[in-house]
Amino acid sequence: MRVATLFLLGAALVVPIGATRADAPPRQGWGEPLTADELRPFDITVFPDGAKLPPGSGTPTQGEAIYRQRCAWCHGPTGVEGPASRLVGADGFFEWSDPLRAIRIVKNPVLALSMGGQWPYATSVFDYVRRAMPHTAPKSLSNDEVYAVSAYLLHRNGLVGRDEVMDAKSLPLVLMPGAARTVSAWPLEGTGRAPSPTSEKAGSR
Amino acid sequence: MEQRPDERGTARWSRRALLTGGGAGVVAALAGAGRAARAEPTNAVPPWMRAPGGPDEEYGRPSTYEAHVRRVRRPAPPERAVMSSWRTPLEHQRGIITPSGLHFSVHHNGVPAIDPSAHRLMVHGMVERPLRWDLEQLLRYPMVSRIHFLECAGNTGANAVMPMPLQAGCQELFGEVSCSEWTGVPLRVLLEEAGLKPGASWVVAEGADGGSHARSLPLKKLLDDAMVALFQNGERLRPSQGYPVRLLVPGWEGNVNVKWLHRLEVSDRPAFTKDESGMYTQILEDGRLERFAFTMEVKSVITRPSGGQLTAPPGRPTEIAGLAWSGRGKIARVDVSVDGGTTWHPATLGGPVLDRAFTTFSLPWTWDGKPALLLSRAEDEHGVVQPSRSRWKARYAAHSYNHYNAIQAWAVGADGTVENRYA
Predict the structure, then answer these.
(1) In total, how many domains does chain B have?
(2) Does B124 fall in a domain?
(3) Residue B188 in domain
(4) How far apart are alpha carbons B207 and B189 in whole angstroms?
(5) In CATH, what number is assigned to the domain containing residue A166?
(6) A205–B397 CB contact, under 8 Å
(7) In terms of residue numbers, what domain contains A173?
(8) Which domain holds residue B159?
(9) Closest-CA residue in chain B for A117?
(10) Which of A92, B8, B330, B362 is the most exposed place for a label (fewest CB within 10 A)?
(11) Which chain B positions have a beta carbon within 8 Å of A30's beta carbon?
């Protein structure tokens, strides 16, 4: 009985110290807590349902002026000329009737692919322009400018009207031709709007 | 002009061979004669045997006589492209390890000059504890070393889309694959330290380059065998390979092995980043777009002899040798044909045969001096075999070039030249 009491006393003395330690985050490795302020400047990934889209807005008309100034030098006056990736159209800068098509694709494969024809979600346009464009000055556009450029590119692809406002609400609702053509080699069930490989039969060239 | 063995066992090289040889360096190296400017051996004791040698240096380099063994840039300057591909001289590689300075690289926004003291790795999203690490902290973890190949999804794309075979060699056609020993921290350790929330199933990995390259990856795979790599072939990563830290995703297309890794956002769905929306997808035969086909399937190539080279002269024993790899596991066997696939001979696999690593193979061969069509066909431990080109093409649209792994054919002419051929 005395021994048991001593054990209980001992336990009572130890418990408060243990409880204090349990209040602090467990430290099983060398990572330091990442604060919201530290993360904020880098937290730029936008998801297909519009999650993480920032405030702001822009129209194709506004975007056209920015495009001419900041984008056309690489992507061409209308977004199809290159040398950087084709932004407008279906499956290619190089027409099927072009006898040198294959050679041109090998020389510059990015011109065989078009954002308008292949990308499944409009949110990806905002995400990529904001993180990586213009090529020589990435992350230099304001959120309003990124919305405007995205709106212009979608308009050039015939997907939004000339004066349609693109913002965090409207951008995820734009239906992209690439979505219906998508089939995934990795199962995407339960992952937002992405179609599953088995259910996806629609879509053609 | 026929090639004939001369007294030193080398050969006179036909004009055609020089024209198709892809540069005199390749031809000369193959002839065993070194650079074209080298002196002929004489009976005199050479000068380096009559004087003390020179000093060594702090960081060693290959012999100046091997200066032709280097990466090539595609597209070659002055052509303008925002994206550059630096290809490995695969035909010069012997053994399974690619020297770090020769490892292929593809950059979408150039090579950033990262100061490691200012670099952080962040984990956030669907985790209990968002965390960050600096390099000193990462270097304190127990590390693992693995030998794995890395292959660009677009490697050998020219053979996928060109109606006629592009006359080029291994470096041009196959040079977007390399193999290194990678050392780092299993990603599982860092993710578990942060604590995964229920429902977490994808991770968006992002680099600290100008374009903030990003790819969405299934959490299951990352927990299984992905690594936060800090070392390549025993030294810290080269800037071209992601210094100071990169993601290594064994067996999966190069583009997801995010270089200059600085952020991992745990999610329950993919983000459909630029490369999973467009360039790193495949256009199927019916026009559908196949996404998230991560695994680089079983593939092989004969590197000796290969396109642009000259075969050794006929009549004496040499070998047909090459490299095989599979993103699913170990190489089980490689068969070689010298008659365009009519008959096949099992090649000998050189050791070590490792999981998702280059595996060397060879077959003794004495060329009879007649035209031959050399093929290699690899099979991995899961029984997956390389398809023929026509079978591969049947699955994809005419202009789809990613994940090309069809059986490669090299045609040996009567003059000993070797050309790319579709078989």
Answers:
(1) 2
(2) yes
(3) yes
(4) 20
(5) 1.10.760.10
(6) yes
(7) 46-180
(8) 113-164+178-285
(9) B278
(10) B8
(11) 133, 137-138, 140-141
Q: Please, which pLDDT band fits residue B78 given cuts at 50, 70 and 90?
A: low
Q: Which residue is associated with the tokens 């190539």?
A: B301
CB pairs under 8 A between A and B: 199
Residue type, B26: V
Domain count for chain A: 1
Tokens of B5: 């063995």
Write the ipTM: 0.88
Helix (H, G, I), strand (E, B) or coil at A182: strand
Residue B219 inside a domain? The answer is: yes
CA angle B328, B107, B81 (to 5 degrees): 125
Question: Are B247 and B337 members of one domain?
Answer: no
Q: What is the pLDDT of residues A30-68, one digit of tens each?
A: 999 999 999 999 999 999 999 999 999 999 999 999 999
Are B399 and A105 a contacting pair at CB < 8 A?
Answer: yes
Chain A residues within 8 A of B291 when measuring between CB atoms: 120, 182-186
Chain length of chain A: 205
Answer with the one of B263, B285, B307 that is the final residue of a domain: B285
List the one residue out of B135, B392, B368 whose CA is nearest residue B262.
B135
Looking at residue B191, which CATH number applies to its domain? 3.90.420.10
Q: Which residues of B touch A118 (CB under 8 A)?
A: 277-278, 281, 289
Residue of A nearest to B277 (CA): A119
| Residue B57, burial from CB neighbour count under 10 angstroms (0-12, 13-18, 19+) | exposed
Question: Which residues in chain B have Cβ-Cβ distances shorter than 8 Å to A181?
Answer: 287-289
Q: Which of B239, B262, B285 is a domain's end point?
A: B285
B317-327: pLDDT as tens digits: 999 999 999 99
